[in-house]
């Protein structure tokens, strides 16, 4: 008899998540039936959407999330024993799946050949965040050689890749994130041209110095007043803004207030577009293969912040929300 450890959504978050909002329980799993397989989690992802989507998640259910799991029993030929799958099984150590899509989430997928790269990358640069960065830049932001690009959340899973992909495209890249240590990593190791610490710098002033002629492209991971400042005061005419996330407001009890952006959008005739990674599901492998190629060529670097132990899922999640991660935040079981 297999016993799964599972985090259930016990209580709706009210502001910043509290440990008592989730409950760790044990579930005895039945024998697998024809068409099913049993998978054991190896790496689990913690992502901002787990906080952003919480208001519409049902209480009492397994908390949402992606994981890389190893197939340990199988009566489904598409998921043989020993293979690794990336799937939206949620915060749980063991899962019985029929290989079909959990409604609203991605379909379980046997990991493609990563050519020796770690399987955990399926949760980061070779998975959803990597594809958000890749398609967000190539399809939505569409930077041109010589453009000046600003990216917020710059040292995170998506932002650190967005900046590097824009460098590959021949742009000048300004990263905005929450610590000087992150800035040093972005500039010294990832090749960003400059860095602004939104916690200690005046973002408007620092951006004027870093980009005196203005910003052609802005990849927005945070929303709020930082984005209002960039959009209203720093964009060049006909610039583009890719709206990827607004984490600055996810933990607020009241809807966050920021200076309206319509004036800036109108004045500079900006093109501003929201994006959701699932829109590229039909060409998902293109992003994974391109990011993998860039890694192999030494042009794209990745970093993981790894928390050990399934029991520490909540800690990893809240550490990430507080900015404790460099690159992708994951949990190793
Ligand atoms: N649209 C889509 O399909 C997707 C959207 N996203 C969104 O992209 C953004 C980045 O996600 P991801 O790369 O996975 O996460 P990150 O790895 O960037 O982790 C979150 C980061 O957000 C930063 N942060 C936390 N609070 C604030 C705040 N008040 N103001 C500014 N920054 C803050 C922290 O870094 P710091 O130290 O800099 O504060 C933290 O490290 C999120 O908004 C997320 O919701 C992500 C994936 C897909
Ligand atoms: C798929 C992720 C979406 C957000 C908003 O993080």
UniProtKB/TrEMBL annotation:
Its EC number is 1.3.1.48, 1.3.1.74. It is found in: Cytoplasm. Its main location: cytoplasm. One of its GO terms (molecular function) is 2-alkenal reductase [NAD(P)H] activity. It is an enzyme of class 1 (oxidoreductase). It catalyses: nonan-2-one + NADP(+) = (3E)-nonen-2-one + NADPH + H(+); 6-trans-leukotriene B4 + NADP(+) = 12-oxo-(5S)-hydroxy-(6E,8E,10E,14Z)-eicosatetraenoate + NADPH + H(+); hexanal + NADP(+) = (E)-hex-2-enal + NADPH + H(+); (5S,12S)-dihydroxy-(6E,10E,12E,14Z)-eicosatetraenoate + NADP(+) = 12-oxo-(5S)-hydroxy-(6E,8E,10E,14Z)-eicosatetraenoate + NADPH + H(+). It holds the Pfam family ADH_N_2. The keyword Mitochondrion does not apply. GO terms for cellular component: cytoplasm. One of its GO terms (biological process) is prostaglandin metabolic process. Residues 19-331 form the Enoyl reductase (ER) domain. InterPro entries: ADH-like_C (IPR013149), ADH_N_2 (IPR041694), ER (IPR020843), GroES-like_sf (IPR011032), MDR_fam (IPR045010), NAD(P)-bd_dom_sf (IPR036291), PTGR1 (IPR014190). Gene3D superfamilies: Medium-chain alcohol dehydrogenases, catalytic domain (3.90.180.10), NAD(P)-binding Rossmann-like Domain (3.40.50.720). Transmembrane segments: none annotated. Keywords: Acetylation, Cytoplasm, Fatty acid metabolism, Hydroxylation, Lipid metabolism, NADP, Oxidoreductase, Phosphoprotein, Prostaglandin metabolism. Belongs to the NADP-dependent oxidoreductase L4BD family. Monomer or homodimer. This is Prostaglandin reductase 1.
């Amino acid at each position: 008899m297999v016993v799964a450890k599972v985090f259930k959504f016990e209580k709706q978050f009210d502001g910043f998540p509290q440990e008592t909002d989730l409950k760790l329980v044990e579930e005895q799993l039945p024998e697998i039936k024809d068409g099913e397989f049993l998978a054991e989690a190896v790496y689990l992802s913690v992502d901002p959407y787990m906080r952003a989507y919480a208001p519409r998640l049902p209480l009492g259910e397994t908390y949402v999330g992606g994981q890389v799991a190893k197939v340990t029993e199988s009566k489904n030929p598409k998921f043989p024993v020993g293979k690794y799958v990336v799937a939206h099984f949620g915060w749980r150590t063991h899962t019985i799946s029929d290989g079909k899509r959990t409604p609203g989430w991605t379909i379980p997928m046997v990991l493609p050949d990563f050519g020796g790269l770690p399987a955990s990358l399926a949760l980061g640069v070779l998975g959803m965040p990597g594809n958000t960065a890749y398609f967000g830049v190539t399809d939505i932001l569409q930077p041109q050689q010589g453009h000046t690009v600003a990216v917020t959340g710059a040292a995170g899973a998506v932002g650190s890749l967005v900046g590097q992909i824009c460098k590959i495209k021949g742009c000048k890249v300004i990263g905005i994130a929450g610590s000087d240590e992150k800035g040093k990593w972005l500039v010294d190791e990832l090749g960003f041209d400059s860095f602004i610490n939104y916690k200690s710098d005046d973002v408007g002033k620092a951006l004027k110095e870093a980009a005196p002629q203005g910003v052609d492209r802005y990849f927005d991971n945070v929303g709020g007043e930082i984005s209002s400042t960039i959009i209203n005061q720093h964009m060049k005419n006909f610039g583009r803004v890719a709206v990827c996330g607004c984490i600055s407001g996810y933990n607020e009890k009241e809807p966050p207030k920021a200076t309206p952006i319509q004036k800036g959008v109108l004045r500079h005739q900006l093109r501003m577009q929201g994006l959701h990674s699932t829109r590229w599901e039909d060409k998902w492998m293109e992003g994974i293969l391109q990011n993998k190629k860039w890694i192999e060529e030494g042009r794209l670097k990745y970093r993981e912040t790894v928390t050990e132990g399934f029991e520490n899922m909540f800690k990893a999640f809240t550490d990430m929300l507080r900015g404790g991660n460099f690159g992708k935040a994951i949990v190793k079981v």
